[in-house]
Amino acid sequence: MSKVDLSRISLRPFKISDVDDFLLWGGGDEVTQNIRWKTCGSREEASICLDDRSIELISVYRWSGDERCKSDIGYAIAKNYWGQGITTKAVNIVVSQVFTEFHGLLRLQAFVDVKNFASQRVLEKVGFHKEGVLRSYTYSSVSLSF
């Protein structure tokens, strides 16, 4: 596949009409092996679009109660678009907006499979710093980092 012109990338709320595109790319084992799927529907979830077609999902989950000052960011992209800078651009857009949209937010964090070097690199490019490896924290039999 040829390299994507990043100026064609946009973020918008995930819509029910995205479901067919989502199922095309989101059902692959290679895409889902390093992530935890949650039900879509909150305004914090966005579909990353190429010419208004969903190719990626990105979400920010705001903690509650005493932990309300923290949020988690997560994302997944269609395998055909790996390595083209799309996720880096999308995460950068979200990071640039989340602290103004979530009043009182002090910390945005991500948990990444220790073997998912591409995702770790995305986070480094947008300013995240690795804080450690959670050796006892597993989900779907993967150890997580950051």
Automatic annotation (TrEMBL):
SUPFAM superfamilies: Acyl-CoA N-acyltransferases (Nat) (SSF55729). GO terms for molecular function: acyltransferase activity, transferring groups other than amino-acyl groups. Residues 9-146 form the N-acetyltransferase domain. InterPro entries: Acyl_CoA_acyltransferase (IPR016181), GNAT_dom (IPR000182). Transmembrane segments: none annotated. This is N-acetyltransferase domain-containing protein. The lineage of its organism: Eukaryota, Viridiplantae, Streptophyta, Embryophyta, Tracheophyta.
